[in-house]
Inverse folding.
C-alpha cells in the first residue's frame, strides 16, 4: 500500500504557508550549510509533499509520517513527527497533503546528512545536505 505513495522533501532556511492564497513560499533552499564552529546545531525547515492514488486513500490516510535526519553512519540525530496524513486536495486533483517540518539537529563534524521522509519507519523519499565549518 505504501508503494504507491510518492513524496518530496525540500530542505530550506524557511518555509511559509500563505493561508489566504493557499500556497507555500520556500526561502533559501539548502544543499549546503556552513556552521561557525563544531559542535553546532543545524536549524532548517522542510516542505513535505505527499501524493497517493485515490484508490489507496483509505489505506494511507491517518498514518503518521516523520522526517528523520541521520549522519553518514546512520545514527538518528533528529526525529520530527508530522501531522497524520489526510487528503487536503479538492475533488479532481491528485490526493495528497503538503506539510512543514521544523528540523534542528546537532553536528560535531563536517559531512553529508540525510533527511528521510518516513511513514511508519518506511522511507518514502530522501534529501541530503552537506555541513561544513566556515
Amino acid at each position: 500500500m505504501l508503494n504507491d505513495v510518492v513524496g518530496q522533501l525540500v530542505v530550506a532556511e524557511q518555509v511559509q504557508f500563505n493561508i489566504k492564497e493557499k500556497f507555500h513560499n520556500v526561502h533559501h533552499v539548502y544543499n549546503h550549510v556552513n556552521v561557525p564552529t563544531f559542535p553546532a546545531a543545524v536549524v532548517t525547515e522542510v516542505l513535505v509533499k505527499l501524493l497517493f492514488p485515490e484508490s489507496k486513500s483509505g489505506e494511507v490516510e491517518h498514518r503518521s509520517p516523520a522526517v528523520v535526519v541521520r549522519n553518514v553512519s546512520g545514527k538518528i540525530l533528529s526525529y520530527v513527527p508530522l501531522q497524520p496524513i489526510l487528503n487536503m486536495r479538492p475533488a479532481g486533483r491528485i490526493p495528497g497533503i503538503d506539510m512543514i517540518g521544523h528540523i534542528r539537529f546537532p553536528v560535531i563534524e563536517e559531512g553529508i546528512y540525510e533527511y528521510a521522509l518516513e511513514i511508519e519507519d518506511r522511507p518514502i523519499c530522501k534529501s541530503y545536505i552537506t555541513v561544513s565549518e566556515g
Q: What stands out?
A: The domain at 6-133 is CATH 2.60.40 (Immunoglobulin-like). The chain is about 5% helix and 60% strand.
